[in-house]
Amino acid sequence: MAWAKKGAPDGALVVADAQTRGRGRFGREWVAPAGTSILASVILRPVLPVDKAPLVTLAFAAAVRDVLARQTGADVRVKWPNDVLCQGRKIAGILSETILSRDGISAMVIGFGINVNQSEGTTPGTSMHLVAGHPFGRGEVLKEVLGAGAAAVETLTTKGPEAVLDALRRHSSVLGQDVSLHLGERTVTGRAVDIDAEGRLVLDTPEGLYRAVAGEVSMREAEQ
Question: Degrees (nearest 5) of the Cα angle 146, 56, 85?
């Protein structure tokens, strides 16, 4: 974030080999031993209005999903808004932060972690190695993710949200499911029916449609 505020260019990248104090959503830690994961933050400067910032995160998540599905040959899905699951277990996560200016988005920092070569100890998550049965070159995976991410954000800015959201909906782990959306001390329950043009998760609840800007989703079947 500090580098972005100092004027780092679009596409500037920070990569770590290990992570001991990684920060995820809701202040959670993401710890990764050396040599096992892709741990990176990329600075983006999309030409988009402020209210489209959540769509950038979703576009990048969809790009990560596409790469991991191609590389592993497995069923990979996006759990709104920023987790990537393989065979129902977390394999990657994305966390974005936005710097605003008078004209809109000055910069976004997209931090992402991908479990690549862990062969054990990732419970309840998984890794590319565990899924495919062989190790992967982290540099090649990272290169493909960055290319796919850049293409997804370019599509978002030039063609609008539907081009990105269509693929995201097809590969969602939550749409069509009965879910609980946890919003701090409040929980909203309903069926996830859509991801709208603003990137919000739409729940069909007994009180009507609820459009979630943020929150943590869990499958209601898993809670019973």
Answer: 70
Query: pLDDT by residue for the chain (224 residues), tens digit each?
Result: 999 999 999 999 999 999 887 665 555 666 788 999 999 999 999 999 999 999 999 999 999 999 999 999 999 999 999 999 999 999 999 999 999 988 889 999 999 999 999 987 666 799 999 999 999 999 999 999 999 999 999 999 999 999 889 989 999 999 999 999 999 889 999 999 999 999 999 999 999 999 999 899 998 754 43
- The pTM (predicted TM-score) of the whole model is 0.91
CATH 1.10.375.10 fits 2-170, yes or no: no
Gap between the Cα atoms of 182 and 187, Å rounded: 5
- Give the span between the Cα atoms of 42 and 123, in whole angstroms: 27
Torsion of CA 110, 111, 115, 118, to 10 degrees: 150
User: Are 76 and 49 within 8 A, CB to CB?
Assistant: no
Which regions of the chain carry the CATH code 3.30.930.10?
A: 2-170
Residues of the chain with CATH 2.30.30.100: 178-223
Is CATH 2.30.30.100 the right assignment for the domain spanning 178-223?
yes
